[in-house]
Request: fold
Amino acid sequence: MRAALLILALSLALGFAAYHLARSGTPIAGVQSVAASSTDSNAKKPDFDREIKPIFQARCQPCHFQGGQVYDRMPFDKPETITRLGAKLFTRIKDEKEQRLIRDFLATP
Reply:
C-alpha cells in the first residue's frame, strides 16, 4: 500500500513538472533534468543501424538475427520490431546506458 502511494505521488510530481515546463518554459527546481529530458524537442533520435542494432547483435544474435530460431517472428534487425516490443526488450538488456539509448530511440519520433 505504501509503495503504491509513493509511486502515485512520484508519477503525479513528474507529470506536474513536465506540464509546468511545457506551459512556462522554466523547469521546477530539483526536477530540471527529468522534466527537460521528457519534453526536450531538440532530442535527436539515436540511429538504429549505428547505435541500436549493435546492442541487440551483441545480446540477441543467435536467435533474433538472420538464421535464428525466432527471426521470422521477431527480427531484431528491423526497427519496427524494436518499436513494437518496447520496454519488453529489457529482459535481456540490463545495462543502464544501453537501456537509456533504447528508451531514447523509442521515445523520439
The chain has two domains: 2-39, 48-107. The two ends are 36 Å apart (CA to CA).
